[in-house]
């Protein structure tokens, strides 16, 4: 996947470049990765399934010898540049560390988890937790989820927890504005194009600017100290840094203001790097002029800034976990271990979810029922309040203060929670293809688990077909669990049956999965790669095998379809209605950030565990559930929280309560209040997310948004259109 | 000095502003005729802001936001779309060519798209000429 990204980036930079990517299997199993792979193909990247045997030099050119496994031909490819994709290896000193910590390593030299399926983050010694690539290769999103999960494990041993609190100065900005402008060189990144000294000097002529200065790296520790000193020395009450993006560096400079005793919202950034020097690299004069305009706009806006402070909001110290599968159970147990009151709601009669239906788990063949029993035992011993045959009916409130109505035995009970973890699981695709439900001998991989639970299959010809309902036009994503579980099944079935396994790409990326792939082959399972969908007439599976190019008819007594993991539509729809949780394109719940916030939803106080956010294997489900628990615990360990001050408020004198604001508010944050002489709108600051939709909708200018007031934006527009003096 | 168009671009905090940052990170070049004003959501763009920009002499205004379905605030971009449609009719009646106002969806990851959108919009406005020249206002 990383190679696909590099190839596409190279293609975007160098339009005419020809890129060939040699691969064995395309393993784009992450969320949105398959779509990215499809885009790479559309952009003209050539994918050749083959392994290079040598790279040699011929007349100053590099020549790669490749066996194209699809055409069966040995090809010599001339190229200007060869990029190698080496595998991830265990860290060099991992053996020493393992000795010191008394931890076991696996056969590949990575740290060994205590139990690969349900304790993926627990090391082989109690109290030591593992995360990220320490246990095996993985990408950023999984590493981040695991890191939070490992923190959750560690926190269960920590008795006393405290949060260092930072007092945010409420004041600043009184009297005449005294603005300081700091213009960053960013080494050569800005100064190589923009005349930064000229911009700093220019800024000093702008309204209320009393200090203009250029500096080599504004974000360097020593420079930040210098900025703090200057603020104090020159009595600055507003600060502008003209440098990079507020998205990446805003918080850093806001902290500097806090240290200097100023309210952080008296800070403004002019983005003269990402939006100027980097994108106008060949037009230095115009870039300098544009930088001056950007600074002028910031100064105009900053003249109207005011100190802002978020309202304090109390936190109800209990959590609700919705969904009683392995994700929900894990999250609930983690929270309980940290001493937090937890309620677990499950709509079925019993908790356990999908684990109840499974037989032996990949990769090691541990009995699912045994693990489940162990977890249910832990649940019984815990203080987790488990509600079965229960459904969440309504959710009101906001981070730290949710009120949730749950129906139980026909009665709806309302309770308060500070955090909510969504562990709603997923659905499996019900195949419409290959004669499923028409022929008795066509089953899904889940139904095969049931059969295997009853006893081993014997003397049958069993064919597996992968990617049923996935990686197609309707549903482009990879379900990521199915290659390794089907291969694990195939390895078991191959003991006493003839097995044929039809796949598009083998994606056995999990711990021990590649080894099972090898094991299945050794036991006689035959693997056939297809591009065009196979067909089944009840007796034979017909497929064109890509490698031999032959049309095959495979006699089949039992056809097993690997069904795609799909969103749990019924539950998801209900959540969307109750909580307005955003969804990703395929209908799974959307993460705060696909890589950096994989266990948080975009709604504060609502967290995501397991397959709710997309297909996952069991270990990944457990890791993300622990991750979600850690995030929820961090929130619930606070007595009160500060909500963002960028929120709407109502000038009640202007309000005539026409309700247009509350109609456009996507968060139901605006309520009607009776006052003397009529009704007015009132904003719940904790629920308001500061989008500003209500401000635009208000016909009487009663609605105002802090930090993005009309006057501030208008001042920016006016300043933009002024000529450079 | 030859005439150069001045163009105001509204970027939402979550998608298109970050998309503009991404264009920088990848060094995708585009003409320097645009100035970005950051708002939390494209739904925050008041029709008054657009009219004010034209009143002050901007040759073009481009509103950008998250792709449909991706809005951080769920429906802000839908509001923005409605307002831009309404504004196009309105400015046309005021004698300002409606092509001077644009609406584009750009995700946080689409640096290349940001640069392309800006390049295309600048060349479109350049083709329309100066605001008070092309319209004869």
Protein architecture, described:
The complex is a heterodimer of chains A (725) and B (137). Chain A has 725 residues and is α/β, with parallel strands linked by helices. Among the domains of chain A are: 78 residues, 3-Layer(bba) Sandwich (FAD/NAD(P)-binding domain), CATH 3.50.50.60; 62 residues, no CATH class; 124 residues, Rossmann fold; 139 residues, FAD/NAD(P)-binding domain (3-Layer(bba) Sandwich); 58 residues, Alpha-Beta Plaits, CATH 3.30.70.3270. Chain A has 19 helices and 36 strands. In chain A, the strands form twelve sheets. Chain A has a five-stranded parallel beta sheet with strand order 14-11-10-18-31, with helices on one face. In chain A, strands 20-27-21-22-23 form a five-stranded parallel beta sheet. Chain A has a four-stranded mixed beta sheet with strand order 1-2-3-4, covered by helices on one side. In chain A, helix 4 packs across helix 16, helix 6 crosses helix 7 and helix 10 packs parallel to helix 16. By secondary structure, chain B is an alpha/beta fold. Chain B has a single domain, classed as Rossmann fold, CATH 3.40.50. Helices cover 43% and strands 17% of the residues of chain B. In chain B, helix 1 crosses helix 4. The radius of gyration of chain B is 14 Å and the shape is globular. The two termini of chain B are 22 Å apart. The mean pLDDT of chain B is 92.
List the SSEs and their pairings:
The complex is a heterodimer of chains A (725) and B (137).
Chain A: H1 2-13, E1 20-23, H2 33-42, E2 46-58, E3 61-68, E4 73-79, H3 94-101, H4 140-155, E5 179-184, H5 196-203, E6 209-215, H6 221-233, E7 238-243, H7 246-259, E8 267-271, H8 273-277, H9 284-302, E9 312-314, E10 318-322, H10 326-337, E11 341-345, E12 360-361, E13 366-367, H11 368-381, E14 385-387, E15 390-398, E16 401-408, E17 411-417, E18 419-422, E19 426-428, E20 442-444, H12 445-454, E21 461-468, H13 482-493, E22 498-503, H14 513-522, E23 526-529, E24 535-536, E25 540-544, E26 551-555, E27 558-563, E28 565-567, H15 569-579, E29 591-593, E30 597-601, E31 606-608, H16 618-636, E32 640-642, E33 648-650, H17 660-664, E34 670-675, E35 678-683, H18 693-697, E36 703-705, H19 710-721
Parallel strand pairs in A: 1-2, 5-6, 5-7, 7-8, 10-11, 10-18, 11-14, 18-31, 20-27, 21-22, 21-27, 22-23
Antiparallel strand pairs in A: 2-3, 3-4, 9-32, 12-13, 15-16, 16-17, 19-28, 24-25, 25-26, 29-30, 33-36, 34-35
Helix pairs in contact in A: 4-16, 5-9, 6-7, 9-19, 10-11, 10-16, 13-14
Chain B: E1 7-12, H1 16-25, E2 34-39, H2 47-55, E3 60-65, H3 76-93, E4 101-105, H4 111-128, H5 131-134
Parallel strand pairs in B: 1-2, 1-3, 3-4
Helix pairs in contact in B: 1-4
